[in-house]
Specification:
single chain, 139 residues, alpha+beta, Endonuclease I-creI, 4-stranded antiparallel sheet
Length: 139
């Protein structure tokens, strides 16, 4: 991740302000009823969203998406769904969020941390099993 400035458009304060005003933390139930979180910002200001994306250096920028009404501007979307990146993003902006989004971010981090621990334990168990099989084959 890049070094962030203390103030200005490349600061974490600025990025957190954009997220606080325009962003959201969504929860989905995708896999066996286990919550799956996503952070997202949708806006018509492509330059602001590009600067946000460059500042946090996480997630993906998509768009433009065109609406059916002619008078509507195209919409751009920044999102982060990869749980390890979402964890990094939420930990980065958490100290700068207001109460409501802080609560949602902490809720998401609790679930994400539990998932990552379970994933690490499962990977470790596979390594132990593989090592045991290799040892048995050496006899």
């Amino acid at each position: 991740m890049q070094t962030l400035e203390k103030t200005g458009p490349k600061s974490i304060d600025w990025a957190a302000g954009i997220f606080e005003g325009e962003g959201c933390i969504n929860v989905h139930s995708y896999y066996k009823g286990v919550p799956y979180y996503e952070a997202q910002i949708m806006m018509t200001d492509a330059d602001v969203l590009e600067e946000f994306h460059n500042t946090v250096d996480l997630g993906h920028l998509r768009g433009p998406y065109y609406r059916k009404r002619e008078h509507c501007k195209p919409v751009y979307q920044w999102s982060v769904v990869k749980q390890s990146e979402l964890k990094e993003f939420l930990e980065l902006i958490l100290p700068h969020l207001c109460r409501r989004r802080t609560e949602k971010a902490r809720e998401a981090l609790k679930v994400i941390n539990a998932k990552l621990v379970a994933k690490a334990k499962a990977a470790n168990a596979k390594l132990v099993a593989k090592a045991a099989v290799e040892m048995m084959m050496d006899f």
